[in-house]
Design a protein that fits this description.
about 200 residues; three-stranded antiparallel sheet; about 10% helix
């Protein structure tokens, strides 16, 4: 799966030559993830997601002075567990997410030094199965389904030169991941709802 993530990021960058005739921004960034979801199960445990991190790349096509479409791919990792009475109970391992999002953005001042924007779109989130020593003792690997969700987006571009700048971006995507033990027909949904904050560089063509 890690090879797939890297391949997806490289495919986005490799798309640049085909887009040379249109105004395009390429953004390469690091991300910090705040997992805002929380669930309390009937037996008493509740989910606990640590802050995560990752990296990504995006390609932004401009269709005029204000409107653009951003295709973005990220590789994100969030540590997860179950707490009981406020204490760690079961280590769920890491939740590895690869969101591929397509967002329509409105830019308020694209040609200015400061370019704030708002966006809305959709994301396909690929999810790796959850593995840990605790899970191996209980019932083995938790199989996880990929999920489709919507995206709310806001950000800021800061122009340093004509072709180089800084990229600051925030994406919120409500996300419930269906999981199950191997051979189990009943799903357990893990609510994550990540807020993804990214910072990096912007190359303008």
């Amino acid at each position: 799966m890690k090879t797939l993530k890297i391949t997806l990021l490289l495919v986005l960058v490799a798309a640049l030559p085909a887009l040379a005739q249109a105004p395009v921004d390429i953004n390469v960034f690091a991300s910090w993830v705040d997992a805002q979801g929380e669930m309390v199960f009937d037996e008493g445990p509740e989910t606990n997601f640590e802050s995560g991190d990752g990296f990504g790349v995006s390609v932004n096509w401009f269709w005029g002075q204000s409107l653009s479409t951003e295709l973005s791919a990220s590789a994100l990792t969030i540590d997860a567990g179950l707490d009981l009475a406020g204490e760690p109970f079961v280590d769920l391992g890491s939740v590895d997410l690869t969101p591929i999002s397509l967002t329509l953005q409105y830019h308020f001042a694209r040609d200015s030094v400061i370019d704030p924007y708002l966006g809305v779109g959709a994301a396909w989130v690929m999810v790796e199965d959850l593995e840990s020593d605790d899970l191996d003792l209980l019932f083995g690997t938790l199989e996880a389904d990929d999920e489709f969700t919507y995206v709310l987006n806001a950000g800021l571009g800061i122009r340093m030169t004509q072709s180089f700048g800084l990229y600051l971006d925030a994406k919120y995507m409500p996300l419930e991941i269906a999981t199950r033990a191997a051979g189990d027909l009943e799903d357990t949904d893990l609510e994550i709802d990540p807020m993804i904050l990214s910072a990096g560089i912007r190359l303008r063509f």
